[in-house]
Design goal:
By secondary structure, the chain is an alpha/beta fold. Helix content is 33%, strand content 25%. It has 14 helices and 26 strands. Helix 2 packs across helix 3, helix 2 (35-53) packs across helix 6 and helix 4 crosses helix 5 (114-123). The longest helix has 19 residues, at 35-53. The chain is globular, with a radius of gyration of 23 Å. It starts with a helix and ends in a 14-residue tail after the last strand.
Length: 490
């Protein structure tokens, strides 16, 4: 039986009330926030949600990674209010459209995005907006805490919530298709921690970072896993200060997207050269959200950091497979979930399938789109791949990106992109098919002279079957635009 997030939180509160749940930067120091304080704040905000908002109502959350963001999200999940996290980099119009689509009447936001939120309020005149740390929110927290202390209200930790009601609507990244609102239950959020604890070593007192964007499913799923296992989370609102945060909070295990892992590798190497010794103490990093380039893998391994990979989607609450710490296999996305409640498979045409309580209820207000991705209870991931006899998953690529040549042969562009990105000096690559012949074209980001890039791709071509060879090369000097989750926008 999978232990729920609610149960895990209750255990941490009862067994380790004075242990650190979060670590907040304060000047050159870090200040702890205990489990007692965290649960008190979640309780107080849950009281407000039940009193003023109501179960099933949607609440938008806009802001950078912060302690207040986590309190808001956890309070929504445990009180039956539906959390709708939004990417802060969206335009005011895009935010308003998504809030209107889910019919959110309440929005909690960071002061950092005050100007943008002010524009959103003009587009949604009927909604109520509250800022983290405002006098109104402080009053609500104080009022809620007193209501629970006096017995006027019951703590959300006193009784288990409805695990199967919609707890959050998370929008897909929109890398290759229209963003859709994914309905996830509280039980969905419990499955990633339950699966991860079977293969990854995390224990009370370990330290990590809250650095992945919390509006993205990988960020929030990994955060709940670390939190539920008793790790202290250093709050890192700006990924550009990743290395400083690792040092400040003495983080030993991290969840990152490959782009951040690459940045961290270069920072560690640079600092080691300055100090003539290796800084840090990071034991392992698990990457997800995109394939880990072999170059980045080898770089971090050479720095003494064990590299692991995972695979999942917003629709599966970030869960499908995770590399086991004791038996990682390079080039795979790890082992399928060990939970008996989660089933996986591969369709006759090579599509990865999954079913279980981690899978979404459906796309919000889009029954036809929901029906297209479900068959006999199986969710069709849209990714092609394989699962070997031991359960290791290899993801080949997205079905909707498959290139069909005029000869009829099919190409997964991701396979060629991984090869190109592994070449010296080539940092990023996108492969597409152009024209009637669907000729293979590679657009690459590199700081090398264009002739050097073309020579390297010519050499790689000679190792490939004729039909997989790159026919046209475009060299760019700037990185590709990326989504907030670190994926290249295709």
């Amino acid at each position: 039986m999978v232990e729920t997030l609610h149960s895990l939180f209750c255990k941490n509160l009862s067994r380790r009330p004075d242990a650190s749940a979060f670590l907040i930067a304060a000047g050159d120091r870090s200040l702890p926030i205990t489990w007692r304080q965290f649960c008190r704040d979640v309780d107080a905000l849950s009281w407000a949600g039940l009193k003023y908002v109501g179960k099933g109502e949607r609440v938008g959350i806009i802001g950078e990674n912060s302690y207040e963001w986590m309190v808001t999200h956890a309070a929504c999940l445990l009180s039956g209010v539906v959390a709708v996290p939004l990417e802060p980099s969206l335009s005011a119009q895009e935010m308003a459209q998504r809030l209107a689509f889910v019919e959110a009447r309440f929005v909690v936001h960071s002061v950092l995005y005050e100007d943008k939120v002010r524009e959103v309020t003009k587009l949604l005149p009927g909604a109520f907006f509250f800022s983290f740390g405002s006098a109104a929110v402080d009053y609500i927290l104080d009022r809620g805490a007193k209501a629970i202390e006096t017995g006027e209200a019951r703590s959300v930790f006193a009784a288990a919530p409805d695990e199967d009601a919609t707890a959050s609507i998370v929008f897909t990244s929109g890398t290759t298709a229209k963003p859709r609102g994914v309905e996830l239950t509280l039980r969905s959020f419990s499955m990633f921690p339950a699966s991860a604890k079977e293969v990854l070593p995390v224990k009370p007192g370990d330290r990590s970072l809250m650095v992945l964007p919390l509006h993205h499913i990988f960020g929030i799923a990994s955060t709940y896993f670390l939190l539920s296992q008793g790790a202290a989370l250093g709050v890192c609102p700006d990924f550009r200060r990743l290395f400083d945060a690792v040092q400040r909070f003495r983080a030993t295990r991290l969840f990152l997207v490959p782009a951040l892992a690459d940045i961290l590798a270069h920072k560690i190497e640079h600092r080691a050269a300055m100090l003539e010794e290796m800084p840090g103490g990071i034991e392992w990093i698990l990457t997800g959200g995109a394939p880990l380039p072999r170059r980045t893998y080898e770089h971090l391994q050479s720095l003494g950091i064990r590299m692991l990979e995972g695979y999942g989607l917003t629709e599966t609450c970030s869960l499908y497979s995770l590399a086991p710490y004791d038996a990682p296999r390079v080039g795979t996305a790890g082992l399928v979930s060990p939970l008996p409640e989660v089933e996986v498979g591969v369709s006759d045409d090579g599509e990865l399938l999954i079913r279980g309580p981690n899978v979404m209820r459906g796309y919000y207000r889009e029954p036809e789109a929901t029906a297209r991705v479900f068959e006999d209870g199986w969710f069709h991931t849209g990714d092609t791949g394989t699962i070997d006899a031991k359960g290791y998953v290899t993801v080949i690529g997205r079905r909707n990106r498959t290139i069909v040549l005029s000869s009829g042969k099919k190409i997964a562009p991701e396979e060629l992109e991984r090869i190109l990105s592994g070449l010296p000096g080539i940092k990023e690559a996108l492969v597409s098919g152009e024209g009637d012949s669907r000729q293979l074209t590679a657009e690459v980001y590199s700081s090398l002279p264009e002739k050097n890039v073309r020579d390297q791709i010519d050499a790689a071509n000679r190792m490939l079957p004729i039909y997989k060879r790159i026919r046209r090369v475009i060299v760019r000097k700037e990185p590709f635009p990326r989504t907030a989750s670190g994926k290249i926008k295709v």
